[in-house]
Amino acid sequence: xxxxxVGVEYNQLPIFxxxxxxxxxxxxxxxxxxxxxxxxAGEPSRECTALVGTAGEVNQFTITARDTSGNDCATGGEKVxxxxxxxxxxxxxxxxxxxxxxxxxxxxYKVTVHDIGDGSYSANYRVLPAGKYExxxxxxxxxxxxxxxxTVVQPGATCAGSSKVSGDGKxxxxxxxxxxxxxxxxxxxxx
Length: 191
Known about the structure:
mainly beta
């Protein structure tokens, strides 16, 4: 895609009006050529929430629609969908994971996708259980490049109200004798 100069000649003489300027626009979105922008950056950073998210936070990433030639699409309007799922064999542990399985019947979370109108799509998800997930991103029902992605949702910030303290030093201690306590940091969602 882009602007190109096209020279047309007959018997080595330019045709009237030549050279012409031809504007080539990107074609329609092709799912296998389309990408999650931060994953396609070569070496995705830890800030790429399509790969690493945080429990309880809104995790946002961008999908870039590309045509079959790899050109970024200039307009929106495609049916872009995303779903964050628990991998079939990795259900995780804990009450929140069990609640997620029960509530979604293992289907996972729908990711909100917003058409920006310029060939890019803003997507976000918010989940409470930390764990391993798969992020499926499709255009017109076909997976984009790299989909489904292995996504890890990490625990959120430690929450004092959810954290636990244990050990013999928690209840009583003797002067001059070492007592032990253990603090288990937990986020506000039980991770």
